[in-house]
Amino acid sequence: MSGSRLALTVIFAAAALSAAACSGSETPAENTQSACDAYAEFSGAVSDARASIDSSSTIEEIQAERDTIENAYQDLGPALESVAEDRRTALDDAWTNFDDAVANIDESMTVPQAAASLSDDIEQIRNARDGLESELGC
Where is the signal peptide (predicted)? Predict the structure, then answer.
């Protein structure tokens, strides 16, 4: 491997790794909507319990509120996992495409040509990173 190709590989690998640092048959958009719906249900259950539990509440009423929150919480977990898996899959796919592209660079290319040939793959990693960042709120 030539020095310039090695340098190019190191630069792009570092960029891909920094992007990474920061499911079922449903589409990522459907998974996100399901997670938002589950979150709204959970948030509503917490708000309802907060408003209805007071010093006059019976133990049974408190337990019923807890059960309602628990059910919403149990629905929320898998929904969040689906969204996280979608983001991870997108990042894994983008990384694999980039890694394969770097491994298959034509050695007769100049560094600028090689860099240009990888721009779409870097863009895929950037988009996957942005999606992950957006979900994480970083």
Answer: 1-21
pTM above 0.90, yes or no: no
Answer for the pair 5, 107: CB distance below 8 angstroms, yes or no.
yes
Closest CA to 77 of 39, 40, 48, 50: 39
pLDDT tens series, the chain, 138 aa: 444 444 444 444 444 434 444 445 789 889 989 999 999 999 999 999 999 999 999 999 999 999 999 999 999 999 999 988 998 999 999 999 999 999 999 999 999 999 999 999 999 999 999 888 887 766
Task: Look up residue 79 and give its amino acid.
Answer: A
d(CA 18, CA 124): 14
Burial class of residue 94 (count of CB atoms within 10 Å of its CB; 0-12, 13-18, 19+): buried
CA distance 138 to 135: 8
